[in-house]
């Protein structure tokens, strides 16, 4: 069979002594199609996909020509149909995706069709990394205990994943205890270049159901996070559609100074890119500074792309990529083919100044980067390390509306004493109690608590005493209670991990001791980290400071921090302390790390160790001592490792044979996974009694005809929210409160509190996830004056109740619902249930000042209409309070992408106001999705019609 040859671009190249085929971008340029050699490298890689998949149906010749003629300053109206090479999933998002696929098979079976017509058409890899929690910490057996608890809690979910492995031909699972999806992708799954059955080679590209999929951009691979619903469509043969992007070039020069880490650089880039306003854009790094960065540093920066709002944070391909592939054990023939392919495509090397046409160029001298942290509530809020003390004390009394904590300045130095209850803590502050007991205590009232206001002003570090079977520990506002070396952002980078180990070694040698109230943990992104920390002899020092390995997975960064000890959590809650966490992660949104820890700071792994020892964040570690050692005060400069000391250890970090050994035959390395049974068959037998896996309602009463687009009238407000409402606010991933709608549901279904698990682990059950939507303990509904918690006012009666309960009443009455929000609505993880739950609550419209890219797309993908206020118009300027009714005027089958509509607001007194809004259905295909009630019904109808 002859291969398609669009624009006569099917060419050959030679690699490893053999001749191979490719669709040539230089040949496309020679054919007079675009000035391709001036295009950003990231755009050219997407263009290759269009060229190779140009079949006149999914991808037209016109689409190829439009992207080949990408203009740096052009208007962005064209839609790109991007066909990806593969898809990666993590288990929190992957389980509900598999549930949807199972439901689609049930739906087509009911239509009398073969269920096997629902089958991923590209390779899909799911890495189980989000289910491990830090229930045990600070002990040598913490890893084993956490793993056992993980398998006990998640047995039903893992059985379901095993069903998926046997039911779908292209669906593979990396079992628990191996690593974090993005680090596993970087170190193992990514090949850099792939080939099809016809021997045609093409770039490795992907989308993933986690926003930090962008980590792979560090090795020159195009990929980003999408919602699970978009990923499902991609799996089933649909292109990933997106508007042609602007590409912001970041020109890097210079090199990092002594004492500065890749984490400091990543936080600096995050702040700079947020100021540059790169939301929805590609960011491409170039210049001599970019070329000189080690690949692991590039990956750390790329990983943070969601935090700076970009679709990608892309580094082009060069010899550093080849070196990394070799060092991590990839096959030599593959490495040679990889290099030859990109040279043949004219895509080899980091561009220099003037070689590429970018929409905008921003410059950064790496020598200007200084030690930094970010927080206390957002990753883009960078703080120079020397300013942290002042920033924390300032934010303490700042209004909540200004990202502060809204406390009185005098409260910072109040004196509180806790009574005599004693609980033994392990080294590093981890609880030795069973997790269930620790959690239960956190819910109880401590009868010994006594509040004493001092007559004079004591110093902050004597704020509160807790007896811990040791000399009483002090804690108060600013106390560090969680210190976690966590997240692939940094654990994939040997330089910062070795720096943490070296700092721990020096701290121990100088006699510094772990702080008894700090729950410390080390959760590497892969077992390779443990290997090189062992080989360099640094593990024992981390252990002595409480940083024992607790698991291989995405732990504290996503809220799986586990419980604090009972007395400590009780003291925090009862005295409303603004306690802190320090973590080497990428996310620090409110209530994400732990529901009762309000100040959360991102930082490099060595700084995590330093602040764990200091025990508080209201300290200037550049001038004040960390603590007292055997010979007096110890300062950060006394124990900070030099660049040379880190380099001396680096040769132990990237050993090809280690990667080959640890990334082969997962089953034999994980006996607990082998013990999990699996059901068989092509159609899943849903169990109506399960509290983990349920058949979702998305295909109930499914028919082959789509609906029609009509105006929405008589909508009531379910919630009115301010700026920076994240997907964590909309659909929390962490602990389930007993008194919440989801908690009440679990109790009613016979689940004891200690077996609640997390929202993230129960994403396969729509009954729980719908009840958890808008249930974050820190979300502030302005209908209640900004009161925290997932409540609302039910109109027209004016009753206060849980958002879920109000939505249920509105659904019963047939009343459509609207959610109103401010800037950056839906920032955060690519959480499909933030859109699915919104849909299931009966919300038909979300109006915001601006949307995060993935969440806007997900809303459309679930048949929810996103509308955007015009500049300067807000819920506050309109004086909305939730007593109004709302109509969307102008919504009809002839709607065009991004056209203006009218939001008709009818006040309680009958006055009517007409407000112009922009429809954020952005592309033609999204109009089709919306008409069909979402992307999944659309794709299912397409598949059924073809079969």
Automatic annotation (TrEMBL):
<dbReference type="InterPro" id="IPR044137">
    <property type="entry name" value="AcnA_IRP_Swivel"/>
</dbReference>
<dbReference type="InterPro" id="IPR036008">
    <property type="entry name" value="Aconitase_4Fe-4S_dom"/>
</dbReference>
<dbReference type="GO" id="GO:0051539">
    <property type="term" value="F:4 iron, 4 sulfur cluster binding"/>
</dbReference>
<dbReference type="GO" id="GO:0006099">
    <property type="term" value="P:tricarboxylic acid cycle"/>
</dbReference>
<keyword id="KW-0004">4Fe-4S</keyword>
<dbReference type="InterPro" id="IPR015931">
    <property type="entry name" value="Acnase/IPM_dHydase_lsu_aba_1/3"/>
</dbReference>
<comment type="similarity">
    <text>Belongs to the aconitase/IPM isomerase family.</text>
</comment>
<comment type="pathway">
    <text>Carbohydrate metabolism; tricarboxylic acid cycle; isocitrate from oxaloacetate: step 2/2.</text>
</comment>
<dbReference type="GO" id="GO:0003994">
    <property type="term" value="F:aconitate hydratase activity"/>
</dbReference>
<protein>
    <recommendedName>
        <fullName>Aconitate hydratase</fullName>
        <ecNumber>4.2.1.3</ecNumber>
    </recommendedName>
</protein>
<comment type="function">
    <text>Catalyzes the isomerization of citrate to isocitrate via cis-aconitate.</text>
</comment>
<dbReference type="InterPro" id="IPR015928">
    <property type="entry name" value="Aconitase/3IPM_dehydase_swvl"/>
</dbReference>
<dbReference type="InterPro" id="IPR006249">
    <property type="entry name" value="Aconitase/IRP2"/>
</dbReference>
<feature type="region of interest" description="Disordered">
    <location>
        <begin position="425"/>
        <end position="459"/>
    </location>
</feature>
<dbReference type="InterPro" id="IPR000573">
    <property type="entry name" value="AconitaseA/IPMdHydase_ssu_swvl"/>
</dbReference>
<keyword id="KW-0411">Iron-sulfur</keyword>
<dbReference type="GO" id="GO:0046872">
    <property type="term" value="F:metal ion binding"/>
</dbReference>
<dbReference type="Pfam" id="PF00694">
    <property type="entry name" value="Aconitase_C"/>
</dbReference>
<feature type="domain" description="Aconitase A/isopropylmalate dehydratase small subunit swivel">
    <location>
        <begin position="744"/>
        <end position="871"/>
    </location>
</feature>
<dbReference type="InterPro" id="IPR001030">
    <property type="entry name" value="Acoase/IPM_deHydtase_lsu_aba"/>
</dbReference>
<feature type="domain" description="Aconitase/3-isopropylmalate dehydratase large subunit alpha/beta/alpha">
    <location>
        <begin position="75"/>
        <end position="615"/>
    </location>
</feature>
<keyword id="KW-0408">Iron</keyword>
<keyword id="KW-0479">Metal-binding</keyword>
<keyword id="KW-0456">Lyase</keyword>
<dbReference type="InterPro" id="IPR018136">
    <property type="entry name" value="Aconitase_4Fe-4S_BS"/>
</dbReference>
<dbReference type="Pfam" id="PF00330">
    <property type="entry name" value="Aconitase"/>
</dbReference>
